[in-house]
Amino acid sequence: MTLDMLLRATELITEDMTTALRADGLTQARAKALWGVAARAPLTQRELADALEVTPRNVTTLVDALEEAGFVARGSHPDDRRAIWVDLTKKGRTAVARMEKAADQLAEQLFGGLSPEELAAATRALASVAEHFTA
Amino acid sequence: MTLDMLLRATELITEDMTTALRADGLTQARAKALWGVAARAPLTQRELADALEVTPRNVTTLVDALEEAGFVARGSHPDDRRAIWVDLTKKGRTAVARMEKAADQLAEQLFGGLSPEELAAATRALASVAEHFTA
DNA sequence: TATTGTTATACTCTATAACTATA
DNA sequence: TATAGTTATAGAGTATAACAATA
After folding, report:
1. Structure confidence by residue, pLDDT tens digits, B90-133
2. What is the per-residue pLDDT across A65-118, written as a single tens digit (0 to 9) for each?
3. What's residue A118's pLDDT?
4. What is the model's pTM?
5. With 0-12 CB in 10 A as exposed, 13-18 as middle and 19+ as buried, what is A33?
6. InterPro entries, per this entry (chains A, B) (predicted)?
7. A85, A130, B34, B135: which one has the fewest Cβ atoms less than 10 Å from its Cβ?
């Protein structure tokens, strides 16, 4: 029952996020890629592929789309002429900041009504789920 | 933070389920469709499309794959010669039973170690998420 | 030889639009 | 006219394999 509810809750949240991202011209996969760039920029496409756990070929398409939309820019790697430097543009930084803010607001709406004890217990429960898989 | 953990937990669970489904020759989308058939069989493709909230065209492909793999069978609708009756095969029933059992076992592994208080708090947190979106 | 990123190709999931057979 | 399901077409996300440029 709790498993069903967990999956259902995420489905609803993901739907909501997908709608919000569409307003910025982003999909889930592209937002995740943009997020990955933001966390490590500047980085090579190979590094981004490893971070996202997808193939380099997949990253080519994702970066193509993000570059086309103006969120990231490709440039020369200073030391390795095979590699491509990917960095955030100003538009990309703005979009990431907006995503962070939206995530915070959503979290407040979703969990703001819980007591500190409940929130702590729920967090522990979710942590134990993650532990089960990473252990 | 809790939002991150919720999304992360579901990501891990989904990964795990995807691997398990692959052993049965099923993808997430096909398993969901099979599940939809199991809950209502026999039913028309139109009814399945409504239940899954996808287009009739999408259902054609999903049922094609499930039929090809022997999980469901198409048949004539008794009253409407336009419509197609979809029903589970014996293999389909077996697969659904196995999926149910696997879900129960996973839930036990994930949540069996929690105290009743933690489990109750987690359930309330998840319920409040669902309420936020359905209200 | 090994690595970076690309082109070529393919499969899955999804959608809209046009069409056929039936209601 | 309206509905059920299909063919035609398209976009997105993913993968493997072969290749060019560079290390």
Report:
1. 999 999 999 999 999 999 999 988 889 888 888 988 998 999 98
2. 999 999 999 999 999 999 999 999 999 999 999 999 999 999 999 998 889 988
3. 87
4. 0.93
5. buried
6. HTH_MarR-typ (IPR000835), MarR/SlyA-like (IPR039422), WH-like_DNA-bd_sf (IPR036388), WH_DNA-bd_sf (IPR036390)
7. B135
Site of tokens 């999903």: B62
The rounded distance, in Å, linking the Cα atoms of B81 and B31 is 27
Domain boundaries of chain B, sorted by first residue: 2-134
Q: Which CATH class is domain A2-134?
A: mainly alpha
Q: Which two tokens stand for residue A102?
A: 């939206």
The reply to whether residue B110 touches residue A132, judged by beta carbons under 8 angstroms, is yes
Mutation target to probe the B interface, by most B beta carbons within 10 A, among A11, A101, A106, A126 is A126
CA of B45 to C1' of C8 (A): 36
| pLDDT band with cut points at 50, 70 and 90 for residue B1 | low
Contacts of B118 by beta carbon, 8 Å cutoff, 6+ apart: A121, A122, A124, A125
